Amino acid sequence: MDSLAVNQVVVDTIHTSHSENDSGWILHHVMDGNYLDFSPFFKVYLPQIELFGIDISITRHVIFMWLAALLMFIIFTSVAKSYKKSLAPKGSSNFWEVFILFVRDEIAKPTIGKGYETFLPYLLTAFFFILFGNFLGLIPFSATFTSNIAVTATLATLSFLVIQFGGIKNNGLIGYFKGLVPHGVPIFLLPIMAVVELLGLFTKPFALAIRLFANMTAGHIVIYALISLIFVMKSYLISPVSVGMALFIYGLEVLVALLQAYIFTMLSSLFIGMAVHQDH
Amino acid sequence: MIAEIYFALISVLAAGGGGGGLLSVDQGLAFWTTLTFLLLLFLLRKFAWKPILTALKQRELAIKESLEQAEKAKEEAKKILSQNEANLAKAEEESKKIIEQSRLYAENLKQQILSESKSQAKKLLDDASLEIERKKIAALDELKIQIAQIAVDAASKILRENLDSEKNKNLVQNYIKEISKN
User: Fold this and answer.
1) Min CA distance, B31 vs chain A (Å)?
2) Confidence of residue A138 (pLDDT cuts 50, 70, 90)
3) pLDDT digits over A174-197, tens only?
C-alpha cells in the first residue's frame, strides 16, 4: 500500500465517519493530547501547567515517557542489585544483560573504540528510553511518545551535545573545529568544506530526529488506516483483511521498535566515534 | 537564567513548526523530555549502569582469570604426572637392580655355603675314615694281642696235656678251627 492510497483512505475516513471533525481522527490518535485516551470507555484529563509563558502541561506522551522512565529505573536498579548478590546473572537479569552487552560490545566498542566507557551511560539510557517508548506504544490504549517530533528532536539535540562534548573533550576546542575539515583539502576548497562540515554537524542529529519520528509514526498511521478500511467500505466482510494486514503491520512494528532503538543508538555512537577520533 | 535561555531556545526551535500539526515541536513536551531524560540518565548512571558495567567487567575478568588458572593447573598436573611417571620408572629400575643384586648375593652365598659344607663333609668323612683306620689298627693290635694270648693259652694247654706231635698238630688244627668258628 503506497502513501497516496493511505492518504486517500485517511481523507475518506475523515469524511465518512468523522465528518464533523476536520483535524482527522488518525492524526488525533497519533499526536499528543491532554488526556489519556481509553475510548470508547472513558478519557482521563490531565492537568495543564504554564511556566514562563510556555505551556508545559502534562500530556499523554509525558505520562508514557514517565512510565517508561519509571519502568527503566525499577528494572535496571533491580538488575544492578542482582549483580551485587552474585556475579552470575539470574532470571530476568539474564535477559537485560543481553541488551546491555549488545549496546556495549556491538555499538559502543566498535564505533567509538578507546574511551567508549565515558559515553556508555548516555548510549544505554538513550537505547532503552527509545526501546521502552517504542514498545509502550504498541500496547492498546497507550501512546507512542517516541513518535512525537518534540521528543525525538530533544533526544537528537542531546545526542548532538554529547557528540560535541566528546569531540571537544578529546581534541580540545580549537583542535576539534580544525579537525572537522579533513586533511589534504586544497586551500581554495577550505571555506566551502568548512561550511559543509559545519552544516553536517547539524544535519546528523536532524536526520536522527526525523528518522525515529517518521518510523514510529508511519506504522501507527498504517494500522489506523487499515482498520478504517472497514468503515470506508461500510462492510464487515473487509474486516478479516483489515485486521489481518493490521496484525502484519503490528508484527512489523515490533521489529521496527527494536530496529529504531538500535539505529538511533548506533548512529549516535558512530557520530561520537567520528568526533572523538577525527583522524579516521 | 539558564531556564530562560533554554525556553527561548525551545521557542526558536518550535517557531518553525507552525501550530498544531504533526511536525510542530511542542515546547512543553521538549521541556519534559529534557528533564525526564537527564534525570533518568543521572539516576541510572549512578544506580544502574555503573554497578552493572562494573559487575560485568569484574565477571569477565574473573572468567578470564579462572580460565587461565585452570590452564595453569592443567599444565601443573601434566608436569606432576610426567614427573610421577619418571619417578615410577626410576623406582622400578631401582627395584630391579636391587632384586638383581640380591639374587647375585644369594647365588654367591649359596655357592659359598655349598662349597663350605662340601669341604666340611669331606673333612668329616676324612676324619671318620681316619678314625676307622685308627680303630682298625687298634682292633688288629688288640686281636694280635688276644691271638697271642690265645696262642699262649693254647700252647699252655698243649703243654699241659702233653701230647705227641701228631696229636699236637690235630689239637692245634682243631683249636685254630675253633677260633675261626668263633
Assistant:
1) 7
2) confident
3) 777 777 777 777 777 778 888 888
Quickly count: other Cβ atoms within 10 Å of residue A47's Cβ.
7
CA B139 to chain CA mean position, Å: 68
Secondary element (H or E) of residue A161: helix A149-171
* Three cell numbers written together for A56: 508545559
Query: What is the distance between the alpha carbons of residues A207 and A228, in angstroms, rounded to a whole number?
Result: 31
Q: Is the pLDDT of residue B109 over 90?
A: yes
Q: What is the pLDDT of residues A212-268, one digit of tens each?
A: 888 888 888 888 888 887 877 777 888 888 888 888 988 988 999 899 999 999 999
CB neighbour burial string for B31-46, b if at least 16 within 10 angstroms, e if fewer: bbbbebbeebbebbbe
How far B59 CA sits from the closest chain A CA (Å)?
A: 6
Contact A158 B49 (CB under 8 A): no
- Contact between A115 and A241 (Cβ < 8 Å): no
Beta carbons within 10 angstroms of residue A82's beta carbon: 21
Amino acid code (one letter) for A171: N
Question: Cβ(B171)–Cβ(B159) under 8 Å?
Answer: no
Task: Return the C-alpha cell found at A159.
Answer: 545526542
What is d(CA B15, CA B12) in angstroms, rounded to the nearest whole number?
5
- Coil, strand, or helix at residue B164? coil
Give the span between the Cα atoms of A56 and B31, in whole angstroms. Answer: 7
Beta bridge partners of A50: A55
| Chain A interface, best mutation among B5, B22, B66, by max A CB count within 10 A | B22
Peptide bond into A40 cis (omega under 30): yes
Inter-chain contact B55–A83, Cβ cutoff 8 Å?
Answer: yes
Cell of A203: 544535519
Least confident of A10-19, A207-216, A253-262: A10-19
Interface residue ranges in chain B relative to chain A, Cβ cutoff 8 Å: 3-4, 7, 10-11, 13-14, 17, 20, 22-34, 36-41, 43-45, 47-53, 55-56, 58-59, 62
Closest-CA residue of B relative to A120 is B49
Average the pLDDT over each of A87-91, A192-196, A253-257, B149-153 and give the range with the smallest value. Answer: A87-91
- Grid cell digits, residue A211: 528518522
Q: Is the distance from CB of A61 to CB of A129 less than 8 angstroms?
A: no
- Distance CA(A13)–CA(A230), nearest Å, equals 9
Rounded Cα distance, A133 and B40, in Å:
14
Distance CA A226, CA B54 (A): 48
Q: What is the ipTM of this complex?
A: 0.81
Which set of grid coordinates corresponds to residue B126? 676324612
